[in-house]
């Protein structure tokens, strides 16, 4: 007899993981939507944020002070990256910008190693990773807390983009850079603000994933989890990043539990990429991405 309760438990676990995938993907979308840059350094920024925070805490800095200091550092890092690396490369081919962020990821990882060392750290955010029972369904407290934080951040972004002057500037630049210039918006200032926001997203993502996996250099590889999310949802849609993350999380867990036994297990790490590859053949722009139309 099919166990529907177990199915619900697996599905909820996948959706909670998917929210955390969405958080990483949103960092990509923010940069890509406003400047057309696929920021492969987002994973390194996530690692740098988590490593900075946990190192400060281990040196006796109070939790709140370490969080505030890391937040300030990530904002400064984001602005510095935009001004020193990306701004000089404005109007360069996309592959040039991508390679710049790829190299930047190694630079940031190297800086993290020089500053904080290479040892693995445990990150305790005060939430135990123990499940609690909801009508017979076991749900991880840590995953639920991380999903709630990620969801709250997404809601704040939605309000920010809709009701603040800076948020409206982001949207204007994302829709049409030339029109934004025509109405007097200063693109370098907007780009700097976007990279600062990407630094904040990296901090939240770094703490969430660091509490789950431990703070180690492999944490930067979480960026690879965002790629199928972006393919499914679209590279230029925050809503797509959310929906894509939920889909990828659910696909991974369901595939591992119900399809994995036919392949000897271990398909969770690549099942989403198979789906993403098939999706590229059907709808390359993703569920919510804008189709590129060029006039010739």
TrEMBL record:
Which CDD domains does this chain map to? TM_PBP1_LivH_like
Is Membrane among this UniProt entry's keywords?
A: yes
Q: Cross-referenced InterPro entries, in alphabetical order?
A: ABC_transp_permease, BCAA_transport_permease
For this protein, the record's PANTHER family field holds: ABC TRANSPORTER PERMEASE PROTEIN, BRANCHED-CHAIN AMINO ACID TRANSPORT SYSTEM PERMEASE PROTEIN LIVH
Family in the record: Belongs to the binding-protein-dependent transport system permease family. LivHM subfamily.
The UniProt entry lists membrane topology as:
Multi-pass membrane protein
The biological process GO terms on file are:
amino acid transport
Membrane-crossing segments per the record: 6-30, 37-57, 63-81, 93-116, 136-161, 193-215, 227-251, 257-282
Q: Name one GO cellular component term.
A: plasma membrane
- Where is the protein situated, by its record's location annotation? Cell membrane
Spell out the Pfam families in the cross-references. BPD_transp_2
Annotated GO molecular function terms are: transmembrane transporter activity
Which species?
Bradyrhizobium cytisi
Q: DNA damage: present as a keyword of the record?
A: no
Q: Please identify the protein, giving its name as recorded.
A: Branched-chain amino acid ABC transporter permease
What are the entry keywords? Amino-acid transport, Cell membrane, Membrane, Transmembrane, Transmembrane helix, Transport
């Amino acid at each position: 007899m099919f166990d529907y309760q177990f199915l619900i438990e697996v599905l909820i676990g996948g959706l909670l993981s998917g929210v955390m995938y969405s958080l990483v993907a949103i960092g990509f979308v923010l940069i890509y939507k406003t400047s057309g840059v696929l920021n492969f350094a987002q994973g390194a920024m996530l690692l740098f944020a988590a490593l900075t925070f946990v190192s400060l805490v281990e040196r006796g800095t109070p939790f709140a002070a370490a969080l505030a200091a890391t937040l300030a550092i990530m904002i400064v890092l984001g602005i510095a990256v935009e001004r020193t690396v990306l701004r000089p490369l404005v109007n360069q081919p996309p592959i040039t910008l991508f390679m710049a962020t790829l190299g930047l990821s190694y630079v940031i990882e190297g800086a993290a190693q020089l500053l904080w060392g290479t040892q693995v750290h445990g990150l305790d955010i005060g939430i135990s990773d123990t499940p609690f029972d909801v009508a017979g369904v076991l749900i991880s407290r840590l995953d639920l807390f991380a999903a709630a934080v990620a969801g709250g951040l997404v809601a704040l972004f939605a309000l920010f983009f809709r009701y603040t002057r800076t948020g409206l500037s982001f949207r204007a630049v994302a829709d049409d850079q030339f029109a934004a210039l025509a109405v007097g918006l200063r693109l370098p200032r907007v780009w700097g603000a976007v990279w600062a926001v990407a630094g904040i997203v990296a901090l939240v993502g770094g703490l969430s994933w660091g509490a789950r996996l431990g703070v180690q250099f492999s944490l930067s590889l979480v960026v690879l989890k965002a790629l199928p999310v972006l393919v499914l949802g679209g590279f230029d849609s925050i809503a797509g990043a959310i929906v894509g993350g939920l889909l990828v999380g659910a696909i991974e867990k369901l595939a591992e539990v119900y399809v994995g036994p036919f392949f000897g297990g271990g398909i969770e790490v690549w099942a989403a990429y198979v789906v993403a590859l098939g999706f590229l053949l059907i709808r390359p722009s993703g569920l919510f991405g804008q189709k590129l139309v060029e006039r010739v």
